[in-house]
Amino acid sequence: MIVTPWEVRGEIDYDRLIQEFGTEKITDQLMARIKKHAEELHYMLRRRIFFSHRDLDWLFDEYDAGRKFYLYTGRGPSGHTHLGHLVPWIFTKWLQDKFDAKLYFQMTDDEKFVFMPELSLEEANSFAYENALDVIALGFDPAKTFIFSDLDYAKTLYREAVKVAKKLTFSTVKAVFGFEADNNVGEIFFTSVQSVPAFIESVKQGRNVPCLIPHAIDQDAHFRVARDVLPKLGYYKPAAIHCRFMPGLGEGGKMSASDPSSSIFTVDKPDTAAAKIMNAFTGGRGNVEDQRLYGGNPDVCNVFSYFYFLMEPDDKALQQRYDDCRRGRLLCGECKACLAERTAEFLRRHQEKREKAREELARFILKD
Amino acid sequence: MIVTPWEVRGEIDYDRLIQEFGTEKITDQLMARIKKHAEELHYMLRRRIFFSHRDLDWLFDEYDAGRKFYLYTGRGPSGHTHLGHLVPWIFTKWLQDKFDAKLYFQMTDDEKFVFMPELSLEEANSFAYENALDVIALGFDPAKTFIFSDLDYAKTLYREAVKVAKKLTFSTVKAVFGFEADNNVGEIFFTSVQSVPAFIESVKQGRNVPCLIPHAIDQDAHFRVARDVLPKLGYYKPAAIHCRFMPGLGEGGKMSASDPSSSIFTVDKPDTAAAKIMNAFTGGRGNVEDQRLYGGNPDVCNVFSYFYFLMEPDDKALQQRYDDCRRGRLLCGECKACLAERTAEFLRRHQEKREKAREELARFILKD
Hints:
The structure is a homodimer. Chain A is an alpha/beta fold. The first copy, chain A, is 52% helix and 11% strand. The first copy, chain A, is built from 17 helices and nine strands. Chain A has a seven-stranded mixed β-sheet, sandwiched between helices. In chain A, strands 1-2 form a two-stranded antiparallel ribbon. Chain A is globular, with a radius of gyration of 21 Å. Chain A starts with a strand and ends with a helix. At the A-B interface, helix 6, helix 8, helix 9 and helix 10 of A face helix 6, helix 8, helix 9 and helix 10 of B.
């Protein structure tokens, strides 16, 4: 199992990640606390898609005392958005609605450029704005949502990033990220830039404002660094809430950048997406007879995962699908056809909103 | 002898620096080439204050073929400007006049902040603009001179700096600058930013423009890196011309930040400056009788150095002073009184122009 900000590989043991990273499980007590404020629990909480956190108790203590938090999340724009990317963003939108929270959304085009040998700066920067359309299409509040490309907001970010950088030795980034002598100096510096949105609202307001970062657990290394350095600059440690990775469509749930059929991109034609799903790896048996007799295994099925993570927010309907699969009542073909139809429909609606987002883009973008 | 961008210590052997850094001596042939274009030789060339270079022959080949160069120099704004800082700037102004060259003048407030534990970002940034007044007071052409703080021009600079950073490993900066695991990641990244003005005119014009960097030899390490990386980005290697360090007023020519009496600052009151000079270490004898009898030693005299570097552009008068000292005709008291008067007069005129520069500042400053 390898889980770093740049590589996720192998069978993921989430309990082990909690131990290794030193985060905390989201307890029932904490769930109750969230529910008290939000008046409901998002299905991603109920299903433990968001499963781990740092300092959420502190964050709600602050909230209870009348000190609201803001949100920070982001995206490394190395290509088009796929459905897996939407998981934490959809949850972030829910948090924004329920807690009336500002959101800083960072597009780390600088990071993707320095870490990916073949990616040009222009490509990374252009994907930042393509990906922003997907963020906006999810319905974030333009009055409270600030999306920025690191490159195009560099004047503001660099001034704060050098403050983080001054407190951060090569030893530390070597230990946290596993950097070696052949890493480039852009890679070595970068985490300083990723730290900035974790205190930028405090800089703007001139007083400490709590920050909550919803993100996939692979990015934790960056925020361990931020939590170490920010108090040295007089800021709060950011709180965080971590989600699992949505599997891809390939065998073993692999999502591979070199194989576009393993992911569904938000810009895929609905028909193309449907075809990918019809070719997906499932937890089904070798033939219809066996499937009827012994049932399928939704626990290892990528198609079921898509329902679980995104396409079936209704818990009862999801349970029904699970049981029907287990009992051999639901064949993979039918199940895939259903997911294909829902996904195609989702994409049609999303792409419509995504096109409208082009006109709204300027309202969301922070630039120097 | 230690000569790095951050520390100059010990007896400086300039021939050894040429060997160790791999630069070239300015030959008589090259001098003749400069003179052909400039129609004169600046006293800093005649006296070999500028003594070393990289690729000047190539630069003049380009110039002869009708391809003009631009100039780039800079300053680390950790405090007020002293007279030693003016040496390369005065020469740069001469180059601008003689070769009708644009100048990018970089104030590395980011560098000073990350390298100096006690310096705040606000101080460094504020000194950038204080130091800019001294640059402007020297008479640079506002239509062709672009002064910028790294912090306030970061949007433009960072976008280019990451391109340099991507080509630069920790191994390389470790070897060139002697960085270790306890250096901070801002220090490690910084040379990427110092490289940018060496190709920024090429970025702006969309075609390669030769660049000449006049600078004190201690900064050579940065431009070795730039010369290594820039061709990988499709740009020319910058040419450079290197000057010696003007000694301070202390024993052995020491200039010490912790001892303000060892330097004359451009903001010193003329009387204060005069008093510092009257207390300077000289090459004189213990008493007047010995001085009359055996003569003084101008070769180790800081007062003579001030005449040599800055306060006596007339070669004949300088030679006369040298001979008079050697032969015991000129006593240290008289010599210091003369330098004190000239320096006070220089400061009065400079400070007048420096105050006027406040109104002109905006015409010179590049900001995002």
